[in-house]
Amino acid sequence: MKHEHPPFSVLMSTYINDNPFHLRQAFESILNNSIRPVSIVVVEDGPISEESQKIILEFKSILNIESVNIPNNVGLGQSLAFGIKFCKTELIARFDSDDICNSNRFECQLNYLKNNPKVDIISCWIEEFDTNPDLPTSIRKVPELHKDILSFAKRRSPFNHMGVMYKKSKVIASGNYQHDYLYEDYALWVRMLHSGCISANVPEVLIKARVGNGMFERRGGWKYATSELVAQNNFRKIGFINWLEFIRNIAIRIPARIVPPAVRKYIYEHQLRK
Question: Which Gene3D superfamilies did the record assign (predicted)?
């Protein structure tokens, strides 16, 4: 019997501060999907907890997990660039070690790709929650069609990174993940779109994303603001945005990085998640 959908693998990264219980929930959500990956590549970014190691071992044979280790913590971008080399399928689904897939996530995305075979990268909408996945705080919607994604990407990240599915060859051709501090995903999306990759988003919530109470503290401060400035300037240098778009983005995005966390939370929940 032939497979209706092409084989795909899942790429994940975990590190010492990840919660083992959340990692278990992530694996269980993949296990409960209507269509499962042929394998999961889990990058251990530096030493991880003994409990996380036990959970990976528990699911290893069930989900065909290949765990690859980096001796020292190198950060998300470099760990994903390392891990993607171990994915043996052309189609790869990204997933975070603390999020939860809806049971139809892979099926919905694979069906979309089947009907739109020219698409190179696809994501979906997500529900964000603090501690209880059944009590979402917001929904992050992203545009469905390529032309709208291109326009959106000039202002904000056009994909929800934990819900992305892409073609490995297109990622490698676009320079793979790089050490774009705090902007590894967004920078890769821009390079892929700028190189001509065709994109889409499934206009449906397929993932519950854990943001936690500390998200608004993490997404602020001068270090984050500096990274924002560097990323936007890189987008300008390669010609993805022009000078006016660069100035507009900086004028809007930098202040959001340096305001108090409570104000940033208001901006995210009432302006960016409408």
Answer: Spore Coat Polysaccharide Biosynthesis Protein SpsA, Chain A
Residue 43, strand partner residues: 13, 68
Rounded mean pLDDT of 63-80?
Answer: 97
- Strand partners for 122: 165, 200
- If one counts every other C-beta atom within 10 angstroms of the C-beta of residue 114, the result is 11
Q: Which of 121, 175, 186, 184 is nearest to 152 (CA)?
A: 186
How far apart CA 185 and CA 202 sit, in angstroms, is 18
Q: Domains of the chain: which residue ranges?
A: 8-212, 214-274
| Dihedral angle over CA of 172, 175, 181, 185, nearest 10 | -50
SS3 271: helix
| Phi, psi for 87 (deg, rounded to 5) | -75, 125
String of b and e for 9-20 (b: at least 16 CB within 10 Å)?
bbbbbbbeebbb
Tokens encoding 265: 């939370």
Q: Report which of 170, 177, 162 is spatially closest to residue 97, judged by C-alpha positions.
A: 162
Q: Encode pLDDT of 91-136 as tens digits.
A: 999 999 999 999 999 999 999 999 999 999 999 999 999 999 999 9
Please report, for residues 145, 159, 163, 174, 193, the alpha-carbon distance to residue 196 in angstroms, rounded to integers and kept in the order given: 14, 16, 21, 10, 5
Nearest CA to 175 out of 156, 164, 191, 159 is that of: 191
Cβ-based neighbours of 120, under 8 Å, separated by 6 or more: 166, 167, 170, 192, 197, 198, 199
Q: Please give the single-letter amino acid code of residue 88.
A: K
The CATH fold of domain 8-212 = Spore Coat Polysaccharide Biosynthesis Protein SpsA; Chain A (3.90.550)
